[in-house]
Write a structure and sequence with these properties.
The complex is a heterodimer of chains A (about 800) and B (about 220). Chain A is α+β, with helices and mostly antiparallel strands and about 800 residues long. Chain A folds into three domains: about 350 residues, no CATH class; about 210 residues, no CATH class; about 180 residues, no CATH class. Chain A is about 50% helix and about 20% strand. Chain A has 25 helices and 25 strands. In chain A, strands 1, 2, 3, 4, 5, 6, 7, 8, 9, 10, 11, 12, 13 and 14 form a 14-stranded mixed β-sheet that branches. Chain A has a six-stranded mixed β-barrel with strand order 17-18-23-20-22-21. In chain A, a hairpin with a 3-residue loop joins strand 10 and strand 11. Chain A starts with a helix and ends with a helix. The relative contact order of chain A is 0.11. Chain B is built from seven helices and ten strands. Helix content of chain B is about 35%, strand content about 25%. In chain B, a hairpin with a 2-residue loop joins strand 4 and strand 5. Chain B has a single domain, classed as Rossmann fold. In chain B, the strands form two sheets. A six-stranded mixed β-sheet of chain B has the order 6-7-8-3-9-10, with helices on both faces. Chain B has a four-stranded antiparallel β-sheet with strand order 2-1-4-5. Classes of the chains: A alpha+beta (about 800), B alpha/beta (about 220).
């Protein structure tokens, strides 16, 4: 009964004070909507690979290696010989290798390049809970030339999922028989696939010389990861005893599959892992947004205490006890939260596609599971309690007589309100600073000279070319206007990953060796990429002939970078002509290159060797003039069709490869700036409400001052001054925190922009300008009011 | 019914005290209609607030129906507010967000009276005050006199033993004031409700059967 009365009063109160209601509801709704979106995103991040029925027993084997006294490299790639020798381990129930290899898939005329194409051992579908729509999990991969498609791919190539027994042609060579159809892999797995072909189709011999495969295992029910690791340590001793020289690191370490996304330290993973720090930041943002919206609510509610005081007094005189008033105000906040919640959910649903775009995710607001409703109820209760309790306690505690005596209540609770406003603005300033710093760093990355020229470089796949074909293709392209240089390399010049080691160095002890990154390239690589030489000469046709000889007669030519030469204790001039052996390739140093960035700027430039080797090129690099782009690309496509009519033509720009190195930074940058804006807006809403309230409260004072001759400007200054003070305090509080956090973040880059006072000043100015604009909306109105009106109303 | 013994009320000023009320001894019997008169600032409103338990005396004892109430806790005080004391204010103090009907109903809600009885009691009072047609209006749609009628209706609906009225006609013109005063007289005579009013008006004071003059915190007569 009472509740109906409470609710009625609440609804009428809402309707009567529209500005407050709108501020409260929109602020809270924005907070709730952002909270829902961020929570969805974070949930996806935190639940990576949790859905596997045997998640706790699944491990991926990591390989750690490093020469004596040198940094240890962690990689997820293992030799494919590892899986067969583990077969007899009593600790393991299943083992599966996974070998990703983007392939050309054809069904009749339908030919496409597919990136998410993996080869896996028969146990794959037993280990991982990727449900099959058709086919038997135990047998779909147990022979050569068998393939399982995802549902989407089945529809793309066949228009149906009823396709078991049909055939697909892979890489223009072999026909694979479809043995199953799998449900699409969910967004929260690091193993996203469209095609899984049987590992046996590769026809590979088990070897220990190269590491190109992922090895996954499922523990037997009574086994532990520690036991497995012990056995792997023994294995290394047995299998690779000769390779493991004294002092060198060589180890296999099991990494838990659900932990891979956020915790793995291994490089070369199937998917770039999430950054746990960014997840923490987003968690903080989500919580702050909700908190700041709640603070608006609390502040506005207590600021209006004078207005509500009379009602509270009357109700107490009529026999209301504090508890009843408390619940009345809780009812009011419940009503507001409910409206905000409804609006927030609608907003979240409407903004989900935009957010997915922003976060590069494919999240869904599933209405099917009860979880989501549990969640929403949780948010609802939290918000109501958080926003409602303080005002309810505060307001219900009024003594009736003061208000009923007709005395104007002083706007009590002022200092708490001020602290809350300071808190809000400190958060806003903090995020403004973070956004500026992150933006600065991204600009720095984009504009820093990286020592190679990545602009206007088109990248094609080189996988299907033989060296002879490539030579002819190159000659054909160079005749075309608009194309300046053509070359090829093993992997992308901005992200070189090949691990090698050099030994047999002239003038060094016989047992000296050094780990080094290296990239096999085509003759014109250095010119195409604009890498300059400090000493030595560029490659000649004769040099290439040396490399094309029979294995035993081959002579290699190496280009070392400055860092490598320095580490070897040579000068660029002295280095030229020195003999060395790199993983069995004997040759001499042909030249020394100026340092260039070949990985993310997060790490310092390491030693690298660029060397010609015509075995396999992953990338064809075409340097264009940048004019008539469409025409040039059409020309390249025409040439491509002449050489590789069966392979679909696809291209991208090297700049995209470069940017994708910083994908998570760019994404964080956009997410950060977007939500910073929301935080600032919500804080401003609160400030707007408070300013409106102050202006209203001081109407009489303003009237008197104006009658006494105050100018409009001085009145605006009077009303805005206090708020600006609060913003300044917020700035002082937020700056050290922001400096600390951003300093840490920048330190994660080996190369970063500087963190100057300018950023903080700018952030301060932005905050003050925003606050001033918000406050002056109200104070100007008050200042321009006719004083007679305000005085008469008293 | 109301017994005040050596009641004082003061607030600190510098090192001393400023007395609003000093050593008030006053007894009001059941069924009386008392008018408290005096100039502005004489302490008459404070006296009424102390009687209504809205304010606590600094010194002295207060017995309400023979029970000491001056140091009562909030819960017991609320019980008295709910059952025995009705207030009428100069500024009416109706709740703006509630209709006439709902304003009158509020004390009954706090008293946890069942819905059917509430309905009949509010209906009775509305009927008696000739306000049935206005029951769904909001306070700001009523004239001052009508608002004060609602205020009185709200005060008596819970059937209190005493009504405390703080300048009930202060904001009204004389015709309206007359209606209100007649209503008080009627309530006092027919319903046997004890009434204590604070007033400036000699005319209004004549409706009562006893006048208490108060000046500088002391009772004069």
């Amino acid at each position: 009964m009472m509740w109906r009365n409470y609710l009625k009063t609440a609804v009428r109160n809402l309707m009567k004070r529209k500005l407050y209601s709108v501020i409260n509801i929109t602020g809270l709704a924005a907070g709730i909507a952002c909270f829902i979106l961020l929570a969805l995103y974070l949930r996806n991040e935190w639940t990576y690979d949790n859905f596997h029925a045997h998640a706790a027993e699944l491990y991926r084997i990591r390989l750690d290696y490093g020469e004596k006294d040198q940094e240890v490299t962690h990689t997820a790639l293992t030799p494919n010989g590892l899986a067969p020798v583990m077969k007899d381990f009593p600790e393991l129930k299943y083992i599966s290798r996974v070998y990703p290899s983007s392939s050309t898939v054809a069904n009749g005329d339908k030919v496409m390049n597919e990136k998410r194409f993996i080869y896996a051992d028969p146990a794959f579908f037993n280990m991982f809970s990727f449900p099959l729509i058709a086919g038997n999990a135990a047998t779909v991969l147990n022979g050569p030339n068998m393939i399982v498609l995802s549902e989407t791919m089945a529809r793309k190539y066949f228009g149906s999922t009823d396709i078991v027994g049909k055939f697909l042609k892979i890489n223009n060579k072999k026909e694979y028989q479809v043995t199953g159809v799998a449900a699409d892999a969910p967004a929260n797995t690091h193993l996203k696939f469209d095609f899984v072909a049987s590992y046996a189709s590769l026809g590979r011999q088990a070897n220990w010389n190269s590491a190109n495969d992922y090895t996954y295992v499922q523990l037997a029910s009574n086994a532990t990861a520690t036991a497995l690791q012990g056995r792997l340590a023994n294995l290394v001793k047995e299998q690779m005893g000769s390779a493991a020289r004294s002092g060198a690191t060589l180890a296999f370490v099991p990494e838990s599959v659900p932990g891979i996304h956020l915790h793995s330290i291994a490089g070369n993973s199937t998917e770039r892992g999430g950054d746990i720090r960014y997840n923490y930041i987003l968690t903080i943002i989500a919580a702050l947004l909700l908190l700041i919206a709640c603070i608006n609510f609390m502040n506005l509610a207590t600021a209006r205490s004078a207005e509500r005081g009379r009602e509270i007094g009357v109700r107490k005189a009529l026999g209301a006890i504090r508890g009843q008033l408390f619940w009345q105000f809780i009812a009011e906040s419940t009503l507001i939260t409910f409206c905000a919640m409804a609006l927030g959910v609608i907003l979240a649903i409407a903004l989900l596609p935009a957010f997915n775009n922003l976060a590069g995710a494919s999240l869904k607001l599933g209405t099917g599971s009860y979880h989501i409703y549990l969640w929403l109820t949780g948010i609802f209760l939290c918000t109501t309690l958080l926003a409602g309790t303080y005002p309810a306690l505060f307001l219900s505690g009024f003594r009736p007589v003061q208000v009923l005596k007709g005395r104007v209540m002083p706007a009590s609770g002022g200092s708490i309100r001020k602290s809350l406003v300071v808190f809000q603005f400190a958060a806003s300033v903090f995020f403004i600073i973070c956004t500026l710093v992150v933006g600065n760093q991204l600009k720095y990355i984009q504009h820093k000279k990286i020592g190679l020229d990545r602009s206007q470089v088109l990248v094609l796949s080189g996988e299907n070319f033989t060296p002879q074909m490539l030579e002819a293709f190159k000659g054909r392209l160079l005749q075309q206007p608009g194309i300046k240089q053509v070359s090829a390399s093993y992997d992308s010049p901005v992200s070189v990953e090949g691990g090698y080691s050099i030994a047999g160095l002239e003038g060094k002890p016989a047992d000296y060796s050094m780990n080094i990154t290296a990239i096999p390239v085509e003759k014109d690589y250095l010119q195409t990429m604009g890498i300059s030489l400090l000493s030595g000469a560029s490659l000649t046709d004769a040099d290439i002939q040396d490399v094309l000889k029979e294995d035993k007669d081959r002579v290699y030519h190496f280009f070392l970078n400055e860092t490598a030469v320095k580490q070897l204790g040579w000068t660029p001039e002295a280095a030229v002509g020195k003999r060395m052996v790199m993983n069995g390739r004997a040759g001499t140093v042909k030249g020394v290159m100026k340092d260039f960035h070949f990985t993310s700027m997060k790490s310092k430039i390491q030693p690298i060797i660029v060397f010609p080797e015509y075995e396999w090129f992953g990338e064809v690099l075409i340097k264009t003039s940048g004019d008539n782009q469409q025409q040039v690309i059409a020309g390249i496509e025409k040439a491509w069709k002449e050489y590789l009519p069966a392979v679909p033509f696809e291209y991208h720009f090297m700049n995209d490869d470069f940017n994708s190195l910083y994908k998570s930074e760019f994404r964080t940058g956009t997410i950060l700036s977007t939500f910073s804006i929301v935080i600032i807006l919500v804080s401003c809403l609160g400030l707007l409400g408070l300013a409106a309230f102050t202006a209203e409260q001081r109407t009489r004072e303003v009237g008197i001052r104006k009658v006494l001759g105050a100018s409009a400007a001085s009145v605006v200054a009077l009303l805005s001054k206090d708020f600006i003070k609060l913003v300044l305090v917020a700035l002082c509080i937020a700056s050290p925190f922001a400096w600390y956090v951003m300093h840490q973040w920048l330190e994660s880059f080996a190369y970063h922009a500087s963190l100057g006072a300018g950023t903080f000043l700018l952030a301060g100015c932005i905050a003050i300008v925003i606050a001033l604009l918000t406050v002056s909306l109200q104070s100007v109105k008050a200042a321009l009011m006719n004083p007679v009106k305000s005085l008469r109303s008293e | 019914m109301i017994q005040l013994q050596k009641i004082s009320r003061h607030y600190p000023v510098g090192f001393g005290k400023n007395y609003i009320l000093k050593d008030i001894d006053l007894t009001i019997n059941e069924g009386e209609f008392v008018s408290i008169m005096g100039p502005s600032g004489s302490g008459k409103s404070t006296l009424l607030h102390i009687m209504g338990l809205l304010e606590e005396p600094s010194e002295g004892q207060y017995l309400f129906e023979g029970e000491r109430v001056d140091r009562m806790n909030e819960k017991k005080r609320t019980q008295l507010h709910r059952g025995s004391i009705g207030f009428v204010f100069q500024a009416y103090h109706l709740i703006d967000e509630l209709t006439v009907y709902e304003n009158i109903e509020t004390p009954l809600l706090y008293k946890n009276i069942p819905a059917s009885e509430r309905k009949s009691r509010v209906a009775d009072v509305l009927d008696r005050f000739n306000m049935v047609a206005k029951k769904d209006l909001f306070p700001n749609q009523l004239s001052g006199g009508q608002q004060q009628l609602v205020g009185i209706a709200r005060a008596i609906v819970a059937e209190p033993r005493v009504i405390l009225a703080d300048e009930p006609t202060g904001n009204l013109h004389s015709d309206q004031a007359k209606v209100i005063m007649q209503l008080f007289k009627h309530l006092n005579e027919q319903d046997k409700i004890t009434i204590v009013q604070v007033t400036h008006s000699d005319l209004n004071a004549t409706y009562g059967n006893r006048i208490i003059q108060i000046r500088d915190g002391h009772i004069q007569s």
